[in-house]
Structure to design on (856 residues):
């Protein structure tokens, strides 16, 4: 009987700020973890993000992962957009990504004006779908031709509602109404 | 504070050198203003006197002295010389002349002036004091001794005169006399109210101990040290010196069966206690002393080894161990390691003295695992001590040289394979190793291959490490280093710059990138890189680096620029064009030379300060350090490179002259 691969124990992880001095490390991380290449403009923005939403994950003193999130205004509410979460290949399946995501969500939970967290995932990325699914995210729509240089070019929009006022259960699609080009799921 | 003699002009002065009462008062003020640094007022006062007595030598001289303090050097010398011509028999004029020379670092002339002044006023304490400072600065030990003797007889109530006289005797080699002086000074204090534990008493007694030790009287030194334990306040210094003296005097050797192996003799226990101090187990001087005690070496050998061995070298490197001694050493270290299980050095040391065999292999592996787990870049460098024993080291029966390197490599590879297969270290059953260990295993293997000269394999392993964890600066640094070693300095510089860009706040990697750029000949880029860590307010980066006395940087720049000149010389360029290249190369090299001149100059103020503060052991150590300071690698390097540049210019001139003569033909224009 094929046994599910035994997961090694979770890694001890320390967090650290991302700033202009170590942004080069983020570039390197991203180059090794994503098929997409981000422009210089992207890296100019990162050091301006609040440290609550942008952090390195360190293991044994070395940066092995990072999360970058950006706050976006949505009427009188805010939503948190996850730009990147990435973990180096050799350090995956040790709970590092989950710790980064939990860090982000915990910080978002302390700000009641943030009502939704969302991100894009390439339609072929089953591992990511699984990862976010376990964290309570659901696919609320699709964007065709989102990616310009990779196949498939389409992505899902994953979202999670947070800080819902007592007694309400808002639909993610409503919270993300201003996101463009989405074919909303019925 | 260089105060000028305030005694009135000597009675033998001519009539024109006597001042009327009013002007004499103003003259006293000039001296006061000088001493309190109110130079503008001093100038005014001097001019007031000179209006009435334009040829008053001492006022002219004082005016010159004040001008010197206002940085108006040429005028200063003019006035002082005028003053001297007007009043040759004034010790004040000569004294001031000496002070002027001294401020220009012209020590020989300064001494001459002071001696002239003393001819006129032989017992002038202030002049004698200034003379003594110059004498010790120039290491005129006999002169210094004579002057300090004079000062002591002049003013025996001054405590510093006694101390300085003892020092002078010590430095001139009259150690027994130095001790007598210290004891005589002690007698003068008898009957006075003394504090029970004063820093000064403590330092003086420790200094006395050191003199006894230098005089070869180790047993007396030990006895004296132990007799003053109550008054010594430097506990660390006391215990350290006691442990050393026990070795030199071959004392404290009786074995005590009630104690463990590390404390079996008093001598051993003294060193073991030092090792037990916080961070004591990292102190290799303590390990050296401890091993001398455990090995039972004689006093002379202990003294020699403690002086000659440095960094992490130990007596076991040079002393062969029989089975019994080895067992004792093992037991002693085992006891210390049990007491302090977290100490790295106590884990490490047995691997430096164990013979080749299972016990050695086991400890080697334990060390590799511990540091792969922790992620220590310097692990390979630490092992190099075993791979490259010095001539005269004991290697018989020990794992050394390339064989030892291959043993480490085998472990690195074995652990890498095991981590890939099971996530655990080789032959280990315990919890999972951190993923970082896999990368460090590749890094260690790269280090071993590099040491063995197997650069292709080293590159492969370095690439493995980078592929595993591309965010580690050390892995890129290793690749850059391998590129340098394989003779590709430009690619090496690129790689080191890439490493730098991972962490712009890391000064170490910035320096490395600067150095590699200079080695690749890209001086402009190196300057820009180095400037990133200079303070913005400081303006020009190179001026800032010169102020910071960054000799390593100046040497590398000088080396790179000199290379351009040497290349041009080899290509046969003209002496003019060579000179144009030599100038910029010599500038940083001479800056290094300037730093060392400054280091020597810097000791001047300490001649008074240390005697006053009674920090005598430190003071003597500084003097001895300064004696050999130009032996430092940076200075030798800079001097050698500068000389090579000058020689190349000379050779070019000679060649040019020969060419010109040949062109004129055999009937050359004579």
């Amino acid at each position: 009987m094929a046994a599910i691969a035994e997961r090694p124990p979770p890694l001890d992880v320390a967090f650290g700020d991302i700033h202009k001095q170590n942004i080069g490390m983020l570039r390197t991380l991203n180059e090794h973890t994503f098929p997409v290449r981000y422009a210089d403009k992207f890296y100019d923005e990162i050091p301006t993000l609040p440290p609550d939403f942008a952090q390195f994950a360190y293991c044994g003193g070395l940066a092995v992962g990072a999360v970058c999130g950006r706050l976006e205004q949505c009427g009188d509410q805010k939503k948190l957009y996850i730009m990147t979460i990435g973990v180096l290949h050799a350090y995956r399946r040790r709970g590092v990504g989950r710790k980064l995501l939990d860090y982000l969500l915990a910080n978002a939970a302390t700000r009641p004006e943030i009502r939704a967290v969302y991100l894009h995932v390439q339609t072929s990325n089953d591992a990511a779908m699984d990862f976010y699914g376990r964290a309570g995210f659901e696919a609320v729509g699709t964007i065709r031709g989102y990616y310009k240089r990779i196949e498939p070019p389409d992505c899902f929009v994953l979202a999670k509602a947070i800080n819902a006022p007592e007694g309400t259960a808002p639909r993610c699609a409503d919270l993300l109404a201003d996101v463009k080009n989405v074919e909303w799921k019925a | 504070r260089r105060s000028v003699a305030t005694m009135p002009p000597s009675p033998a002065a001519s009539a024109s050198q006597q001042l009327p009462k009013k002007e004499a008062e103003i003259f006293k003020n000039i001296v006061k203003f000088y001493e309190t640094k109110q130079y503008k007022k001093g100038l005014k006062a001097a001019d007031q006197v000179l209006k009435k007595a334009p040829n008053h030598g001492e006022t002219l001289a004082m005016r010159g002295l004040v001008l010197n303090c206002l940085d108006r050097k040429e005028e200063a010398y003019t006035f002082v010389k005028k003053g001297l011509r007007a009043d040759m028999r004034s010790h004040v004029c000569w004294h001031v002349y000496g002070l002027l020379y001294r401020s220009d670092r012209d020590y020989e002339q300064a001494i001459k002036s002071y001696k002239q002044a003393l001819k006129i006023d032989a017992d002038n304490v202030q002049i004698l004091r200034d003379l003594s400072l110059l004498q010790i600065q120039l290491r005129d030990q006999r002169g210094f001794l004579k002057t300090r003797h004079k000062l002591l007889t002049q003013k025996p109530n001054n405590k510093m005169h006694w101390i300085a006289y003892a020092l002078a005797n010590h430095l001139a080699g009259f150690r027994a006399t130095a001790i007598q002086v210290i004891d005589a000074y002690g007698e003068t204090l008898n009957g006075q109210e003394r504090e029970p534990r004063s820093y000064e008493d403590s330092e003086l007694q420790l200094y006395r101990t050191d003199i006894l030790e230098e005089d070869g009287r180790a047993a007396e030194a030990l006895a004296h040290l132990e007799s003053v334990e109550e008054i010594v306040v430097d506990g660390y210094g006391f215990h350290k010196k006691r442990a050393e003296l026990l070795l030199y005097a071959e004392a404290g050797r009786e074995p005590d069966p009630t104690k463990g192996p590390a404390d079996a003799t008093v001598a051993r226990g003294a060193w073991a206690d030092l090792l037990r101090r916080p961070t004591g187990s990292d102190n290799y001087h303590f390990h050296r002393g401890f091993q001398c005690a455990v090995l039972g070496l004689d006093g002379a050998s202990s003294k020699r080894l403690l002086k000659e061995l440095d960094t992490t070298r130990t007596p076991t490197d040079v002393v062969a161990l029989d089975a019994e001694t080895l067992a004792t050493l093992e037991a002693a270290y085992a006891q210390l390691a049990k007491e302090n299980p977290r100490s790295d050095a106590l884990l490490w040391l047995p691997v430096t003295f164990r013979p080749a065999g299972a016990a050695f292999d086991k400890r080697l592996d334990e060390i590799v695992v511990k540091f792969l787990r922790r992620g220590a870049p310097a692990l390979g460098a630490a092992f190099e001590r075993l791979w490259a024993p010095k001539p005269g080291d004991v290697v018989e029966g020990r794992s050394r040289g390339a064989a030892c390197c291959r043993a480490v490599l085998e472990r690195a590879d074995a652990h890498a394979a095991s981590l890939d297969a099971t996530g655990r270290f080789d032959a280990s059953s315990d919890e999972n190793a951190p993923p970082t260990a896999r990368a460090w295993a590749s890094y260690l293997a790269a280090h071993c291959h590099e040491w063995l000269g197997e650069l292709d394999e080293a590159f492969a392993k370095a690439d493995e490490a980078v592929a595993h964890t591309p965010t580690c600066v050390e892995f890129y640094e290793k690749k850059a280093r391998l590129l340098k070693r394989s003779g590709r300095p430009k690619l090496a510089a690129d790689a080191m710059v890439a490493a730098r860009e991972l962490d712009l706040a890391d000064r170490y990697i910035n320096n490395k990138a600067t150095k590699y750029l200079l080695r690749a000949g890209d001086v402009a880029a190196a300057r820009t890189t180095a400037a990133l860590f200079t303070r913005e307010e400081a303006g020009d980066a190179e001026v800032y680096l010169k102020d910071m006395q960054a000799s390593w940087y100046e040497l590398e720049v000088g080396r790179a620029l000199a290379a351009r000149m040497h290349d041009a010389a080899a290509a046969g360029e003209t002496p003019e064009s060579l000179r144009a290249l030599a100038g910029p190369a010599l500038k940083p090299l001479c800056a290094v030379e300037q730093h060392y001149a400054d280091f020597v100059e810097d000791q001047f103020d300490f001649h008074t300060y240390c005697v006053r503060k009674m920090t005598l052991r430190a003071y003597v150590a500084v003097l001895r350090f300064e004696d050999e300071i130009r032996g430092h690698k940076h200075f030798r390097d800079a001097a050698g490179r500068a000389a090579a540049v000058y020689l190349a210019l000379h050779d070019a001139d000679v060649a040019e002259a020969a060419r010109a003569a040949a062109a004129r033909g055999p009937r050359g224009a004579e």
